Amino acid sequence: VVRVLQEADSDAAAVQIESLLKTDQALAAKILRVVNSAYYGLSCHVSSLSQAVIILGLPQVRNLVLSVSALSMMKARTPRQRDIQRLFWRHALASSATAQIIAQQKRFSSSDEELVFIGGLLHDIGRLFLFTNFTDTYQEAVRYAEQAAVPVEVAEQRLLGMDHTEIGFELANMWHFPAPLAQVIKMHEGPFTGETPLPALAVHVADRLARESGHGETVPQTYDMDPVASRWLNLSDDDLLVLMADADERVRDVFQSLGFAQAA
Ligand SMILES: [Fe+2]
Ligand SMILES: [Fe+2]
After folding, report:
1. CA of 157 to the centre of ligand 2 (A)
2. What ligand is nearest to the CA atom of residue 185?
């Protein structure tokens, strides 16, 4: 991942990205499946990564490589972990699709649109890390949150001394993710002010809407949308339903193309 990021930053040719990915065929195949899914809505079939770079652009492909590899880095060791990861992926994809639609409606620049796309995918990476590596402790935190009726972030703080946004931020830095992406991961749970960068607001709102659509994380809790973020979004209930249905359609298709069973 780090090599792909460095190459992309130095304006390397598509061919070089492709040759880097030749060392990981499973990853390359997964990326092509995603590129060809309805998520991107392309009218032609893309058969190579260099073709994908020409059609989607280098930053988009770089983002894809980054997110698909980061998320497949955490191997599930038990059926329980596999279930957790499946839920996580669905939440990630729903958040990402929703965030991208919001970015388009709010006329974000193309680089900010890419940022919220990948931010949607990776915002809860800290939670996935905790669940995968400290499954029992994390489940204890979830139970604590339910019993004490506090947000899971509070339970994470009390039991682990850190919440998933801070852990996600540390991971993002360790993996040399771009700084704006690390910032979105750190800020996505709020609270927000008038100064908050818009990509963080977009990912927060997308996270809440994804849960509302039934694409929640592992934690069966609902959270309200931050009032600052909600005011910024400024959509009627009808518009929200259209947005959620649109995102839902994209999620179903990409979920299958990534090799997951149909969403429950
Ligand atoms: Fe989160
Ligand atoms: Fe989330």
Report:
1. 17
2. 1
